[in-house]
Amino acid sequence: MKPSTPIFILLIFLAQLGFGQTADSILNGSWLKLKAALQWKSGIVADLLKQNFTKSPKIDKTQIGVAQNMALELYKRVDTLQTRDKFSISGVYALNTSLATLVGDIFNAPKKTRRFWRRNDEALQLMSQLEACENRIAVARGQYNELCNQYKMTDLFFGPFEPE
């Protein structure tokens, strides 16, 4: 074996290790964007539910209370979520989906609540922000999933690189 062969192998190994760390930092950045989008959504839902819905007799007050508690729980779960394991992320996604369904049920109440929406510009603005937030979550989730798949593919040569 030539004397330069071990050096060449060492350089390949170090390059792969550096690439793994770069991929990990990109993955962490995408993870933080996803967490921020989920927290932003829970804040918008909480602000939206604080609007004066007591004037509308068709909106169920208990549903509003449940949705407020779900929004607070979503914020707390996302805030305390430190690991990127599959089960904790799927739990947050399930809570996010059930919150979106409940908020949709609340705001798609019978036709008499339409007068409330026409009079309340701030609530309409928050609803459009909530829709934009849902789009932002979908994009961040797609980017995160794509980066996870790329991260798994890059680790095939030397085995999985476990971040610290």
From TrEMBL:
Report the subcellular localization.
Membrane
For whether the record's keyword set contains Cell membrane, the answer is no
Look up the domain of life of the source. Bacteria
Its cellular-component GO annotations read:
membrane
Quick one: signal sequence residues? none
This protein's membrane topology, according to the annotation, is: Single-pass membrane protein
Transmembrane keyword on record = yes
A Pfam family that this protein carries is LemA
| Primary localisation category | membrane
* Gene3D superfamilies (alphabetical): LemA-like domain
Which key words tag this protein in UniProt?
A: Membrane, Transmembrane, Transmembrane helix
Q: Please state which protein family the record places this protein in.
A: Belongs to the LemA family.
What this protein is called in its record is: LemA family protein
**Originating organism:** Haliscomenobacter hydrossis (strain ATCC 27775 / DSM 1100 / LMG 10767 / O)
